[in-house]
Amino acid sequence: MGFDRDLLRFVGLCLKSPFCKCGIFIAIFWLFVLLSSLFFGYFDVYSKEPKFLEVPQIVWGLNNQKIAFARACLTARMLNRTLLMPSLSASPFYKEMDLLKPIPFDEVFQFEFFNSVCEGFGSGRRWTVEKDLDQLKQFGTHPYDKYETIKIVGKNPLLWHDHWPVKDYARIFQCMALDKSISAEADKVVSRIKQIGFESKNYRVSYVAVHMRIEKDCMIHCKKMQQGLNITEICSSKDEIIQRLRIIPGLKTPIPDYLAVADDLLKDNSILSGWDKGLLPFEKKKLGVFDLYNRHPYIIQSAIDYKVLVTVFRHFRALSSSNELRE
Fold it and tell me: What is the pTM of this model?
């Protein structure tokens, strides 16, 4: 009881002091501000409508489609929107849009894996990089930000200008794991190549794999790029590829050399001729896996080849780190 009387006496004296009254008022004011911000912040989070970004069907080859998809993710993140998962293209007929057959993202890559690992990523006009970036920034402000969905239109708009560092692309590529069915098909190809390596008595390095982009239209595009950049190290002919294989340190021969080439080149018998002794060239037809590839659309075939190439790269890196290639 004595304590209560002392407390009441203190409160009474405090209320008579102008300084004490001012302190109580300030405390009540900041308490009101804190509670208001918590309440309205909570209300804003749960009342805010989700916003989306829609992009056109992604086209061209596998690597170009991966790059374009990464740009769509980075654009969505920049605009603070969720990306509506675009369709990829099963075929490379980018010049004939009516021949493009769409293929769902999850038939090539693992959708659940992408969302779990990359959470938060979500115009044929000749614009400069600066103008394109300015337009993207505008889409994140009023009045564009009030729309539930923004749709990017134009001819392959995600294959032109670029605004993000390489590390951002690498982050997204790490999330793009191939579908398990594609990996299983690639394992069959690798198993067949390894069988040939075993038959050739090479028990250390199973095989070499080369992605040969020497078809006519690719070489024309490549030569024009070399001329524009005034360099000579982009394009590689078959002879140049053979020369580079010769200088792989510690490469033990004989060894099967798997050639990942376009189907048009399978009709050219010269692809398999002219290789150094000890390099045993095989393409999908000679390897006996042509039917395995042929039952899939173009983008799946490319994904199988990609997996085969990645497998041999990891194998070489493992051998190199253990010094087996140097023995």
Answer: 0.71
